[in-house]
Amino acid sequence: MSSPNPPRADGRLPDQLRPVKFEAGIAPHATGSVLVSCGATRVICAATIEPNVPSWMKQQKVPGGWLTAEYSLLPYSTHERKQRDISRGKLDGRTVEIQRLIGRSIRAVIDLQKLGQNTLWIDCDVLQADGGTRTASITGAYLAARLAVQTLLDSGRIKENPLQDSVAAISVGLLGGRPLLDLPYLEDKDAEVDCNIVMTGRGRFVEIQGAGEEATFSGDEFQTLLALAQKGIRELAAAQTDFLSRELLKFN
Predict the structure, then answer these.
(1) Which of 34, 70, 142, 231 is deepest in the core (most CB within 10 A)?
(2) Residue 61: is it exposed, middle or buried by C-beta count within 10 angstroms (0-12/13-18/19+)?
């Protein structure tokens, strides 16, 4: 008798994450940085503190600091070379969408007033893309931000930790009617339904992006996908906590 949950092409079960790894200090000139690997997807997430705030905040006398994000697929990250945005003279729509998502996701868990008159820049550069680059970027961006915040705390530039919770993200989808967690490119490209879910460590939703690819999905199928995402994000949050418990010991 065949298994009701046969393994996927990479050997995983439907509700299983790809192997996740975090490596700190990958960009030594950033205030905090992490290389996040989710299967074959690899993203450098760097957080840099600028002791200034945008001019619109000064003009409107908005207190506190700011956080913004940039995202880029490096030319060699995909099977076919991706042209750099600067050579085309503008950002493509996907890049704009993703970097705004990353910024919203981290701002959802940070108290900008406690950041002081500083801007926290988050840069996510994809070294290798195999599906889930936006979700890996969010998961790694939080870690880079937390390491950068610790540097500010240790130097006395801020008095309190402005990060109120963790945040992570994962993809889920339907492929052949089968709900799957953490889709690599080979699954993502053929999925009938593709969703990206962003949640905090306390289980609060930040953003839900979902669409049918020439298909529709039922409420029950959507609830199944949400449950899969919640399971995956709980596991990612635990991995984030484990990583930080080791890395923060290295600070003063």
Answers:
(1) 142
(2) exposed
User: Measured between alpha carbons, how far apart are the two ends of the chain, in Å?
Assistant: 58
Could you tell me the domains of the chain?
Answer: 20-250 (3.30.230.70)
Quote the CA–CA distance of 49 and 148 in Å, as a whole number. 7
Question: How many CB atoms lie under 10 A from the CB of residue 75?
Answer: 12
Identify whether the C-beta of residue 43 lies closer than 8 Å to the C-beta of residue 137. Answer: yes
Distances (CA, A) of 178 to 67, 111, 137, 186, 208: 38, 39, 26, 15, 20
The identity of residue 162, as a single letter, is P
pTM of the model: 0.93
Contacts of 198 (CB under 8 A, 6+ apart): 101, 105, 108, 135, 138, 167, 168, 169, 205, 206, 207, 208
Closest Cα to residue 55, out of 121, 103, 117, 109? 117
Whole-angstrom Cα distance, residue 10 to residue 138? 24
Nearest to 48 by CA among 154, 157, 159, 148: 148
